[in-house]
Amino acid sequence: MKVPASPSVITAQISPGILLDARRALIHPAEGWMAVTDLHYGYEIHRSRQGALLPDWGMNQCRTTLLALIHDHQPRRLILVGDIMDGSGSVAQTGAFLDELRNHVADLILIEGNHDRTALKKGWPFLRYHREGSFVFHHGHLDIALPSISQPALRDEVEETYITGHEHPAVTLRDGAGLKLKLPAFIQQRTSHDRQNWVLPAFSPWAAGGAHTSPNHPQTTWVCSPGRVWKLR
Fold first, then answer.
1. Which Gene3D superfamilies does the annotation name (predicted)?
2. What is the full DSSP assignment across 216-227?
3. Inside any domain, residue 90
4. How big is the chain by its Cα radius of gyration, in Å?
5. Is 73 within 8 Å of 27 (Cβ atoms)?
6. Domain count, the chain
7. Which of 83, 127, 214, 220 could, after both became Cys, cross-link 188 (CB 3.0–4.6 A)?
8. Could you read off the pLDDT of 209-231 as tens digits, one per residue?
């Protein structure tokens, strides 16, 4: 099957060895993984069954963008960090989409989110969390006990980073004359001397998102626009 053509690859290095693609994906080229969250695949189908009138375009955009990301970055492992589907009305479409993705990556890792329904989880192996070295992925909707680094000698030497979704972070930019623009954002927070929390932007084109702040923790915000990724000052 022909992979859709992609635009120029636009990334920013947000941590040593870690890239944030403008298309809302986090990539570790050396370790071979790529992570996205909150696809809410089938949103328009599920919501239309509830009475909403929505155009049929979100699934195709989600599919096209993700396949282009895979084509451009060639990850060995694709990590979907929860809310892969939107609801029970989109089980068949989401399952077919996962079947397609499995043909493009060696490992497809699915993390359970609050929108992921039992009917989909019966046919696919969902995890509550996934570890890649010092990076621990979980959706962020549950207060779950996460594993610490297994080697005791490394626990005081390695900084752990928890990577979540769920919150759909975004920023609203204003020109001072009444115009405003909302864009998805990637959040980095330091919670202690040896731990960070990172929050991925929602991958779904339907996810509007909102401000994400934590007065108790220093925070860095990266903005994702179609042609640029930049650190908000």
1. 3.60.21.10
2. TS-EEEEEEETT
3. yes
4. 18
5. yes
6. 1
7. 220
8. 888 877 788 899 999 998 899 99
Confirm if 85 and 94 have CB atoms less than 8 A apart. yes
Burial class (CB in 10 A: 0-12, 13-18, 19+), 150: exposed
- The two tokens of residue 56 are 């049929």
* 8 A C-beta contact, residue 43 and residue 90: yes
The answer to whether residue 230 sits within a structural domain is no
Q: Strand, helix or coil at 202?
A: strand
Tokens standing for 202? 């929602």
> Residue 154: inside a domain, yes or no?
yes
Question: Is residue 180 domain-resident?
Answer: no
Q: pTM for the full model?
A: 0.91
Say which residue the tokens 């636009």 belong to.
Answer: 10
The amino acid occupying position 141 is H
Bridge-based pairing of strands 126-127 and 107-111 is: parallel
Whether residue 33 contacts residue 81, with contact meaning beta carbons closer than 8 Å, is answered with no
Q: Are 68 and 6 in contact (CB under 8 A)?
A: yes
Amino acid identity of residue 50, one-letter, is Q
45, 85 contact by CB (below 8 A)? no
Give me the domain span that covers residue 35.
11-169+190-211
Question: Could you give the angle at the alpha carbon of 17 between the alpha carbons of 13 and 19, nearest 5°?
Answer: 40
pLDDT single digits (tens) 77-95? 999 999 999 988 889 999 9
Token output for 155: 């626990």
Show the beta-strand stretches assigned E in 97-167.
107-111, 126-127, 130-132, 135-137, 160-164
